[in-house]
Amino acid sequence: MRYEKGAYHMTDQERARKEILDLVRDYCDKYHNQKKDFQEGDRIPYASRVYDGDEMVNLVDSALEFWLTSGHWTDQFEKGLADLLGVRYAALVNSGSSANLLAFMTLTSPLLGDRRVKRGDEVITVAAGFPTTVTPMIQYGAVPVFVDVTIPQYNIDVTKLEEALSGKTRAVMIAHTLGNPFDLKAVKDFCTKHGLWLVEDNCDALCSRYEIDGEMKYTGTIGDIGTSSFYPPHHMTMGEGGAVYTDNPLLARIAKSFRDWGRDCVCPPGQDDTCHHRFDGQYGELPAGYDHKYVYSHFGYNLKATDMQAAVGCAQLEKMPGFADRRRHNHARLKAALKGLEDCYILPEACENSDPDWFGFLITCREGVDRNKVVPYVEAHGVQTRMLFAGNLIKHPCFDEMRKSGEGYRVVGSLETTDRIMRDTFWVGVYPGMTDEKIDYMAQVLRDAVKA
Questions:
Q1: Quick one: CA dihedral 98, 103, 104, 105, positive or negative?
Q2: How far, in Å, CA of 363 to CA of 46, rounded?
Q3: 120 pLDDT above the threshold of 70
Q4: For 145-167, what is the mean pLDDT?
Q5: Rounded mean pLDDT of 356-380?
Q6: What is the CA radius of gyration of the chain?
């Protein structure tokens, strides 16, 4: 390469680009993908990025284009994700939390008529999970209705659904916990029976599968809307990022409107008048012929990701089958290695009729085993741990005002199991970068922790 002033423009652009990208791949191979042997005591994170030169080359390739905002890489990623999951529509956003916000707000659109979620309406969910599954409801003014979960699946207790139902219920919005699908048959049947929307928070379960009506389908595609996160610890990464996907064309249109400032126009960024009706419409009380690019049908946001993120995601999508296989392998190996400790730990079990793409390995300490002793021991021996996110979300400071007032949410039953998870449960990783040696070492540490 020649970088000196006045010389670069003489180099053929395509050749220059190839030289740059070849150097990037060499750099990644030399400085990012050097493998080192595992030594006992080396830090084992609960999750980490797994990538190679493909991701870095795509990233730099998109940077050389300098389009920066959503463009052809985004189009390629959205199509690739939709094809992977077997749905018609996918919308890339800037995080999994934004995906949950977008999915929920889609249900509030006036375009849905009598089925729209209005302020004061209720949404059935769980408190044993990540807060941004619930946050959009509260911020909009809907009422989350919290139902207990079960151990060892750590998902919603479907026997409580009818009890949670009221005349104000409009939707169910829950996550597949750490990759383990919830009982989609029971939840889907409940929603169909009562005319409710079902939003699957699939942020921790990309490529998990569930058999329903004799067909094995990906989680996130069985309800009305699914969401994903592409934060570094998740099943695939683009640094920050997320997605909303659906088979429903109206929901897809609404979601993209909310994502793109709430606008009515469907022209891609940088394009004008693809519908050939930019200046001949009548909208609201605007003057006839007002520029359709600046007509807003929703109170929306800008939740788009960049093309550089999408470029990384395109390379990651190609690796998803291998990632999923390795996660399943790691989870099965760890569970087999902990056999015989069932009197100390409750080990995770997959939901019936499911094939989880595990995000992590959940462990609940049995009576007489103190999590507050086990976790520090495990961490001190180099194995990173995590709680099941909020544990019980309504115990957190963000709920202080609502707890005092007794308004803004509703609880069904005692949330007894949720509270137990808050006290006794933790998890370790099974991400695809883990080797068998690391899995076996983690198992030994977990064994030693209850002997210490």
A1: positive
A2: 14
A3: yes
A4: 98
A5: 98
A6: 24
Distance set, CA 12 to CA 25, 316, 330 (Å): 20, 30, 47
Q: Residues 341, 450: contact at Cβ < 8 Å?
A: yes
Burial of 231 (0-12, 13-18, 19+ CB in 10 A): middle
CB 145 within 8 A of CB 124: yes
Read off the pLDDT band of 282 (50, 70, 90): very high
pLDDT band at 4 (very low <50, low <70, confident <90, very high): low
Contact between 230 and 240 under an 8 Å Cβ cutoff? The reply is: yes
Q: Specify the 3-state DSSP secondary structure of 384.
A: coil
What CA–CA distance (Å, rounded) separates 71 from 68?
Answer: 8
Write out the catalytic residue numbers: 234
Look up residue 374 and give its amino acid.
V
Q: Which amino acid is at 48?
A: S
Burial 78-109 (b: 16+ CB within 10 A, else e): bebbbebbebebbbbbbbbbbbbbbbbbbbbb
| Eight-class DSSP state of 408 | S
Specify the DSSP class assigned to residue 35: -
Are 378 and 391 in contact by the 8 Å Cβ rule? The answer is no
Backbone angles phi, psi at 362, to 5 degrees: -85, 140
| Per-residue model confidence (pLDDT) at position 1 | 45
In percent, the amount of the chain with pLDDT more than 70 equals 97
Count of CB atoms within 10 A of residue 356's CB? 27
